[in-house]
Write a structure and sequence with these properties.
Four copies of one chain form a homotetramer.
Chain A lengths: L4 H20 L8 H13 L3 E4 L15 H13 L4 H7 L6 E6 L2 E11 L14 H4 L15 H16 L6 E9 L8 H6 L8 E8 L6 E3 L2 E2 L3 E10 L15 H13 L9 E10 L9 E10 L2 H22 L2 E10 L6 H11 L6 E2 L4 E2 L6 H10 L3 E8 L17 H18 L3 H4 L4
Parallel strand pairs in A: 3-4, 3-5, 5-14, 6-12, 7-13
Antiparallel strand pairs in A: 1-2, 2-4, 6-14, 8-10, 8-11, 9-10
Helix pairs in contact in A: 1-6, 1-12, 6-12, 8-9, 10-12
Amino acid sequence: MIVEEARYQRAFEEAVATRRDLHRHPELGLTEFRTAAIVATRLRELGLEVRLGREVMDEASRVGVPSAAELRAAYERALAEGADPALLRAFEGGFTGVVGTLRGAQAGPVVALRVDMDALPIREDASTGHPPAREGFVSAHDGIMHACGHDTHVAMGLGVAEVLAAARSRIHGSVKLIFQPAEEGGRGAVPMVRAGVVDDVDCFVAIHVGSDGESGTLYPVVTGHLASSKLDVRFRGRAAHAGGRPEEGRNALLAAAQATLGLYAISRHHAGRSRVNVGVLRAGSGRNVIPDEAFCMLEVRGDSEEIADYMLHRAEAVIRGAAAAAEVEVEIETMGRTTTADSDSALAEAIAHAAAGVPSVRVDLRPHQAPGSEDATYFMRRVQERGGLAAYMVVGSGTGGGHHTRTFDIDESTFKGAITVLCEAILSLGAAPPEAGRRRAN
Amino acid sequence: MIVEEARYQRAFEEAVATRRDLHRHPELGLTEFRTAAIVATRLRELGLEVRLGREVMDEASRVGVPSAAELRAAYERALAEGADPALLRAFEGGFTGVVGTLRGAQAGPVVALRVDMDALPIREDASTGHPPAREGFVSAHDGIMHACGHDTHVAMGLGVAEVLAAARSRIHGSVKLIFQPAEEGGRGAVPMVRAGVVDDVDCFVAIHVGSDGESGTLYPVVTGHLASSKLDVRFRGRAAHAGGRPEEGRNALLAAAQATLGLYAISRHHAGRSRVNVGVLRAGSGRNVIPDEAFCMLEVRGDSEEIADYMLHRAEAVIRGAAAAAEVEVEIETMGRTTTADSDSALAEAIAHAAAGVPSVRVDLRPHQAPGSEDATYFMRRVQERGGLAAYMVVGSGTGGGHHTRTFDIDESTFKGAITVLCEAILSLGAAPPEAGRRRAN
Amino acid sequence: MIVEEARYQRAFEEAVATRRDLHRHPELGLTEFRTAAIVATRLRELGLEVRLGREVMDEASRVGVPSAAELRAAYERALAEGADPALLRAFEGGFTGVVGTLRGAQAGPVVALRVDMDALPIREDASTGHPPAREGFVSAHDGIMHACGHDTHVAMGLGVAEVLAAARSRIHGSVKLIFQPAEEGGRGAVPMVRAGVVDDVDCFVAIHVGSDGESGTLYPVVTGHLASSKLDVRFRGRAAHAGGRPEEGRNALLAAAQATLGLYAISRHHAGRSRVNVGVLRAGSGRNVIPDEAFCMLEVRGDSEEIADYMLHRAEAVIRGAAAAAEVEVEIETMGRTTTADSDSALAEAIAHAAAGVPSVRVDLRPHQAPGSEDATYFMRRVQERGGLAAYMVVGSGTGGGHHTRTFDIDESTFKGAITVLCEAILSLGAAPPEAGRRRAN
Amino acid sequence: MIVEEARYQRAFEEAVATRRDLHRHPELGLTEFRTAAIVATRLRELGLEVRLGREVMDEASRVGVPSAAELRAAYERALAEGADPALLRAFEGGFTGVVGTLRGAQAGPVVALRVDMDALPIREDASTGHPPAREGFVSAHDGIMHACGHDTHVAMGLGVAEVLAAARSRIHGSVKLIFQPAEEGGRGAVPMVRAGVVDDVDCFVAIHVGSDGESGTLYPVVTGHLASSKLDVRFRGRAAHAGGRPEEGRNALLAAAQATLGLYAISRHHAGRSRVNVGVLRAGSGRNVIPDEAFCMLEVRGDSEEIADYMLHRAEAVIRGAAAAAEVEVEIETMGRTTTADSDSALAEAIAHAAAGVPSVRVDLRPHQAPGSEDATYFMRRVQERGGLAAYMVVGSGTGGGHHTRTFDIDESTFKGAITVLCEAILSLGAAPPEAGRRRAN
């Protein structure tokens, strides 16, 4: 190992503490004000160059931005919970991205690690059977929960920062630590990519804890991320007294029901997985009123951009057709997108090589099935299209309930191996970049 | 009575024979070649002025015309069954209307009687429990049946012609006997109205046997005919192998299913009865092929033209929306229409007056609910809008199964009373037309 | 007039004040704690015998009772707004009915007046164009509004109590003033009927202000109240990750969409108006989760109990079939019912007679179309089935927006005529009851 | 090569003639009376032991049997076209399977070749652009076409019989030639498997021409056959006059439309391809009648038995739920099934080895994607579960339109290579069976 074990042990212990604090204060996508402020503060303390907010997020590329009221409430809560007001201003309006850069002593490539920071609109299990509740760090934000482990990603990212900041003399090239907001819904990556955050990156790694992986095992060859589009749909009709003047109504709920059936009935694509889901439908205001408004949240997915585009095209036709049939207005808004991307085996192998000497860690180079969609894929595609290498690595960490459930929990002991392997790999990659990464050095 | 009873008895006996011959040889709407030829031949024998085919039917107003093959097959059948080839030529292409005029000795108004001639695509019950089968005049045309009694209307119409031809000296004004094709589906009346057939009519009566009326009772005040539109809809998509290339298909059957649900879900109108029915749906060719064709036969109805128009407007939106959702082509064809009309009470009362001396006949002047839709209403509206009087009279005639069933049957003995009352009323009306009919005399 | 005009003028002025206070403090059905306490207090002050809560409402007959939390919150609000705590206890749990009885000096029949007290979940227009806002009595309870005029009914009912309490010497028999909760949704009448509230009533009158009636005109012959059932439906399926394990889900939203289409597609009844409406649908929790819960609020209506029962039967089949198709659980809860009832013309004529001498009031005895459904019909049916007379009277009172809109408003000046006619009629009815009411006197 | 080239040339020429005769006289599944009679006659002439009809088809396992009328009509046609009446009797009722066995001079394993014989309900292109039409062997059976190449399979199977019958001295073990009816719809294989036809088989090969393979190339490793179930569904409701008594109807068409939407909306399975298709829907009899009957032909498919079973289970729930919602009766009949199966590589390699010396033939051992479903898989599974080897081989043969189209055509020149390789492989397999086949010799 390039760095001594005791250093990793300290970083691990701090990561556990950080994770528990974040777990207790979860924040939804694009409202990670407190989280981002903690990240930025810590990175500055460690001496990294830090860029924030609009510097690292392109405004025009944002979709699915929360309402002004939601942004405001989360902002106030972060303030109330002690976030640095000066930093917060940089994030105002939902620009909650942070990028820290550590320039090494020697020339070499740019190696980036990307973690995501947002939580989910899920009410966490508060029973003592659920470890975070038992240990006292259950969510203090009602109805919001780190049910996908992004708290652990931030904690590990800061752990890596800590170790590498102290090992700057051994860094070749530079290290970029990317803290992305709003992975859920596929909203945070594109604005950071469009802001050029990875335009100089030679080797890129994104991580995700995986409750279906084995604790102590890392899987740097993840495949099968689904391309997806997330849509919000609003039907607007005309209300009428359902008993007295039914013919005067234009029924938005009926349009939404027709659209729902039509969406689920879309012919699937022969070339791979194709998915559609209407996850939320809210319509109408009173029992005896022809409903004049309906709102749907839906998504389509596919094993490739082509399939996802086919599903999207068909979905739009179905929605507009249902609106036309009911003679109601309709508005379709894209709330997020994800794409597909494959991990480069050269990079995965370099990670495996770096992990060789690390105790109690195993690297499994076989393809690991991605659980769903991920917008880290936009970073990966950007890096690869400029000639760099990219990998998406699952940190096996099974414990509690599945992802996106009220009892989701992970095995904190896995942080240590992950931080260690990431640091060792980053240092190795700088010193001896794999083929594709070699051509460009800062 | 103006005419002696024995004359009516003879006309009645002939009417029964005529009816049984027609019942045995039923013909669908616009293919009543044999029927119309029999009618025209008989009217000429009786000395009426006879107009035929295109003389009494406006070509541009026709909808729901059978295919050339269907027209041809029915034509050949009529020839084979001995219809006069010279007459048939006048009906070629489905112009099967006949109008006979009897000019009276004295001046007076124009009084018209309208009967319809077409049968239904129903397979008649051939068991001995069914009187026409027992008596040997069950339909000889497989799958076609006089299941609504139009055979009896023609028979009574010819009975009236016979009596009045012999009573010409007592006719004031003139009498018009209108034999209309294609009442089923609402296709025959409009072309005759547009050809001007009732433009000179002062008093107009249409008749219909009614299995829900009492035998021996006439109901000259029928109300509640529903306005309606009959539509044929063809969806055309794209076939594809359902297992191998589902995404390449554009599913016409799915469009038809969506349309069906949307149609039945149309908000009904507060102002009266509103109906919609998809009576027939045929789609697809093979189990494992995404269906590329679907065909629907549907109708909308309403208590008023306004309601029927509302239903029609919504139906078209639903159908086009469903097609758009499935990305298939659609073609909507109007196959028939009916409207509403009310009987004039002055005319109904005149009929009741004429019936006063007729034995075993009762006239019920209370409003009688129409069983469904009727295109005689177009004649009625035309006569009324020109200042004439119109009535729709049900001839109570209950016996066998309901209208449009395989066991429909009527009480032939009612012909006599009906012929008698019609003749007596026509003669009386000419001599002493009610108020509204008085203003114009030929 | 039996009572002098000045007395009516004072009652009118108080009614306006009462109405404005109630308008400012609207309460939803079965939570009319403050309103009922004001009513009970006032009736007691006036010397009426007062029965409350469970004395006048049968617990087992209640449906659509708000949740414990909603009942609690409304109760606390009433307390905070100064309602008498001792009285409130009688209403606890949503037993908010009040009945006051005034026994006359002479023998005679029992004459009852019924008014309703509940408001609607509508946010009142707060702009100065809306008179209650301009005059300072716009709703102080956010999202709740007296948008159907029940505040005016209570005010008029208390006005009648006031006048009659001072005129006891002229009362023959006794007068019952029934203050009913929860007319909206059809929930309040049945428990009062089942508690026997009208079992001794000879003449029964229910009133309703009508924005489509003319100010100054009373319509005591209202017809066409639709029988109805109000249903809440909950579908419960199984959540699953829509991208990762779609087959593990059981889609409650899909069941609700299928049910919605099936409900609107129910064949309407030939015998009269038949209505169905899914007014509210809420389903699902997240875009990428197969929805495991769906909630629908719906209603069916018909021109007769038979039609409404047919619609209800079909609705239940459709809902259960949709649940079975989606393999989800379903629960159907009846939230309210209304029935049909006709006003007795003898009673209506008696009212007209009493109104003859009242200045600036007109009584229109022609049938007046009911705007929708009403559960006062249960009182009417009960009184009529025991041999009494019943009438439903609309107090014409047009001004602002339609019923159930944010800008609903009425013409307060109409209170005076209504109070006057009601008092004069009640006194007359006692002195000279119409035929049917004569048989029983207290 | 074991047999001289001239022998293959003669067999090839006869195969072309046979194919053209069969192409001109196509027969639907379970009505292959003429085809089976030709096969049996020829096999007997060649000296094979021939088993027929019920000897090789288990009656209880049959599904999707044509109606008695259809069977009768096809039988009469075969008689009229000169099929041997004595043989035909063995096939009566649709038992149209034939198995010929050739016992070799030496001991050895049982090697089987299976071909299918049925045609499709497709009207063949009769234009001169279509080679069978140009060459004079276009289908003489209107609306029936060998659009999937089973005519060529029979021709090649008889070609193999001819060569091997003349080479009996070189056969080790025995050769079974299986001529299966009704592959389309998945109806013919299971009854033959249940009759024990392959219970003694050590090596089994099924063939299929493939318009997407290259002419001259054989693909003995076909993967991805979809498991499937084919269902016919009949909904039976109650007719009613749509205008007059809509509430009396129970709408079977509506049930079918609801079922259609529900079927297409079934959540797809994460573990592989899942398909559903409603290929045919026919419902209703008249425009103005609530439809009392609806008939659907549908299928579900999956990449595994588990997935297909999941789809089948969901489909049945959807269909029964839709029927319950509409209160109509429903009957679901299984019309056919297919399963999955993998080719054994040892057998594929043996075929490749035997093909090594054959001129102008190439064997491609890479996995070749199956185009859809196949019931040969039941034979394969049976052979494999008893320890034998099985392979499904595509004979690349691209020319005209795709499978199941009106212009499907194949390259006849490929017959020669296929017959040659099959004969050489069968002879080799007998002499030197691959490992798994060795254990059992006759």
